[in-house]
Amino acid sequence: MDKDSTVAAIIVAAGRGRRAGPGRPKQWRELAGRTVAAWTIDAFRSHPRIAQVVLVLAPDDMGLAPGWDAHPDMRVVAGGDTRAQSVAAGLAALDALAPDAVLIHDVARPLVPADMIDRVIDALAHAPGAAPALAVVDALWTGADGRVQGVHPRDGLFRAQTPQGFRFAAIRAAHRSHGGAAADDVEIARAAGLDVSIVEGDERAFKITGPGDFARAEAIVAQSSGGRMRDIRTGTGYDVHAFGPGDAVTLCGVAVPFDRALSGHSDADVGLHALTDAIYGALAEGDIGTHFPPSDPQWKGTASHVFLEHAVSRAGSRGFRIGNVDVTLICERPRIGPHADAMRARTAEILDIAADRVSIKATTSERLGFTGREEGIAAIASVTLIAD
């Protein structure tokens, strides 16, 4: 695909994975400090050529992903009884975006390398479908009753992997016409007459199936991080400030003209307060009140960037960098849209990261609650910290 093409990814995570042994489905089990699903999602969300990720979950698991569906580049949808039905649900969720191409991936392949994703995308410039695979190198037998019955030629045989990529319109039509179960999306594509190119796979993209596969995946993670497990943390923050007398509100470091101000011990920047608490939360180091007690008069009227800079320095002292941040401001007024770019720029400056790693957005509460009555402003923030 060319550089202007839009590529989306569907992560199929509705299965139960019973061969992995008793306990939770394998996508919700821990791998090197994170769930298998989190590793898989991050592999696609962090890829520069993926514009949108759709996570397809079993209906009973929908409550396990409240944070992911808050991200503008993600959607979480319920799947069906079969893999084909789940993929169809993911494809339907992409209709509005109508990407040029879509990659369909098994959640149980959490360590898919970025260059393998690139190979699949690149192959779609010349074919309606492309999928990674590894040539079979071992001898193949047929057998019955515990005994070898014959030998099968291995020439031309491949072990299929994911992501399997397709031009979106073609695979959408193929799924609509298929209607039955299938081992994977290549089978559905070929049934619709689509050519599927084979690209080089990668042993690291193996599928976690049995209990022993978790240890194998842990070893790969350890090796890729120089013998240590990479520490990636997320944190959330929430803050509220009431309106008081004044002629401007300070939000995410920007003074916004208004007929009131926000009341608080400091400058009451509700956006930066929520973001600061998100960083402290990811570090498990309390909140703003822990580090800057409101009972201490020295902090009265302090600009909130002081608090945020302290939280960033605490993260840095423990070996973490800011991956990305997302702040949602909740109010009826003032209008945030005209000031959002300035807020992103100022927040990025304080965090010392690129502006494209900062999201500032706003919503109303539909005239409900204290924000709906225009009594104040609330903010929700999330942050990702990455240990280098």
Automatic annotation (TrEMBL):
The record marks 154, 207 as: Positions MEP for the nucleophilic attack. The keyword Transferase applies. Its cofactor is a divalent metal cation. Keywords: Isoprene biosynthesis, Lyase, Metal-binding, Multifunctional enzyme, Nucleotidyltransferase, Transferase. It holds the Pfam family YgbB. Residues 1-232 are annotated as: 2-C-methyl-D-erythritol 4-phosphate cytidylyltransferase. Residues 233-388 are annotated as: 2-C-methyl-D-erythritol 2,4-cyclodiphosphate synthase. It catalyses: 2-C-methyl-D-erythritol 4-phosphate + CTP + H(+) = 4-CDP-2-C-methyl-D-erythritol + diphosphate; 4-CDP-2-C-methyl-D-erythritol 2-phosphate = 2-C-methyl-D-erythritol 2,4-cyclic diphosphate + CMP. GO terms for molecular function: 2-C-methyl-D-erythritol 2,4-cyclodiphosphate synthase activity; 2-C-methyl-D-erythritol 4-phosphate cytidylyltransferase activity; metal ion binding. GO terms for biological process: isopentenyl diphosphate biosynthetic process, methylerythritol 4-phosphate pathway; terpenoid biosynthetic process. 4-CDP-2-C-methyl-D-erythritol 2-phosphate binds at residues 239-241, 265-266, 287-289, 363-366, 370, 373. It comes from the Bacteria. Coiled coil: none annotated. Its EC number is 2.7.7.60, 4.6.1.12. A divalent metal cation binds at residues 239, 241, 273. InterPro entries: IspD, IspD/F, IspD/TarI, ISPD_synthase_CS, MECDP_synthase, MECDP_synthase_CS, MECDP_synthase_sf, Nucleotide-diphossugar_trans. Pathway: Isoprenoid biosynthesis; isopentenyl diphosphate biosynthesis via DXP pathway; isopentenyl diphosphate from 1-deoxy-D-xylulose 5-phosphate: step 4/6; Isoprenoid biosynthesis; isopentenyl diphosphate biosynthesis via DXP pathway; isopentenyl diphosphate from 1-deoxy-D-xylulose 5-phosphate: step 2/6. Gene3D superfamilies: 2-C-methyl-D-erythritol 2,4-cyclodiphosphate synthase, Spore Coat Polysaccharide Biosynthesis Protein SpsA, Chain A. Residues 232-385 form the 2-C-methyl-D-erythritol 2,4-cyclodiphosphate synthase domain. The keyword Transferase applies. PANTHER family: 2-C-METHYL-D-ERYTHRITOL 2,4-CYCLODIPHOSPHATE SYNTHASE, CHLOROPLASTIC. Bifunctional enzyme that catalyzes the formation of 4-diphosphocytidyl-2-C-methyl-D-erythritol from CTP and 2-C-methyl-D-erythritol 4-phosphate (MEP) (IspD), and catalyzes the conversion of 4-diphosphocytidyl-2-C-methyl-D-erythritol 2-phosphate (CDP-ME2P) to 2-C-methyl-D-erythritol 2,4-cyclodiphosphate (ME-CPP) with a corresponding release of cytidine 5-monophosphate (CMP) (IspF). This is Bifunctional enzyme IspD/IspF. It comes from Palleronia sediminis. The gene is ispDF.
